[in-house]
């Protein structure tokens, strides 16, 4: 956001600061609303988790549709139309973090990896044979890396970004549906 106010790095994309503010506020709204709903109904109840993942997936799929039908351009990212997708994607990332916290897996990063690298490096039981939190952190870091590599290769395709969103959205919707098959509470 700070760089955007000075039009840095200067590649001509207008309103960078607005994109940043929109992303931050949408993320916060997603976190606030999702955590409030989950707290209200209970963090181990399947209905709020089901709805959270279905809404997250739907948000991603909506942006995928916008890109597929060229409402949001992928090539000309200096267009103001890219602002249409930011609230949906940022909201779902906030909801994603709220869901991971509600499920009690705060050691698994869902948006950035710097904290997991720190937690791995500073873990006093890093080399212990039984360390579930370390194992989840390492697996999460690997999966985010694998997803990033897959996304990078997909982005080489004309509609690669949309394909990545379709994949992510479908996975989230499938997770939302899967919550229906758990018992009344998640343990």
Overall description:
The protein is globular, with a radius of gyration of 18 Å. The termini are far apart. With 187 residues, the chain is mainly alpha-helical. The chain has seven helices and no strands. It has helices at residues 2-5, 16-41, 46-68, 86-102, 114-122, 132-154, 160-179. Helices cover 65% and strands 0% of the residues.
Distance from N terminus to C terminus (CA atoms, Å) equals: 40 Å
Mean pLDDT, to the nearest integer, reads 84
Coarse shape: globular
Question: How much β-strand is present in the residues?
Answer: under 5%
How much helix, percentage-wise, in residues?
55-70%
Number of helices: 7
What structural class do you assign from the helix and strand content?
A: mainly alpha
| Weakly predicted, low-confidence segments | none
The rounded Rg comes to 18 Å
SSE pattern: HHHHHHH
List keywords for this structure.
mainly alpha; globular; 187 residues
Write a concise synopsis of the structure shown.
The protein has helices spanning 2-5, 16-41, 46-68, 86-102, 114-122, 132-154, 160-179. It is an all-alpha fold. The radius of gyration is 18 Å and the shape is globular.
